[in-house]
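input
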Amino acid sequence: MKRIIFIALIAISTSFVFSSCTNSSSNNEVSRTSTDSTMKYTCTMHQEVLSDHPGECPKCGMTLVKQKLTASQKKMLEDGNYVKPKD
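output
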């Protein structure tokens, strides 16, 4: 009887370990997605130029670089006061 209880406890604890590993990887995917939404391509000289993909600044022609949005850039996105590069 002790042997059956011991095997059952091992099976239950093993299932908890594998289920917790699965949940942590899905949480990482969620955090990566939210982090990517704060990353945009912008011109180093013209912070009002924002894009979801690489390209060139329509004002000066410089290559857009990927960077984390600043507070003022987030406000520009919310208000719609930013320049979109031509595709």
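quick obs: The longest helix spans residues 2-37.
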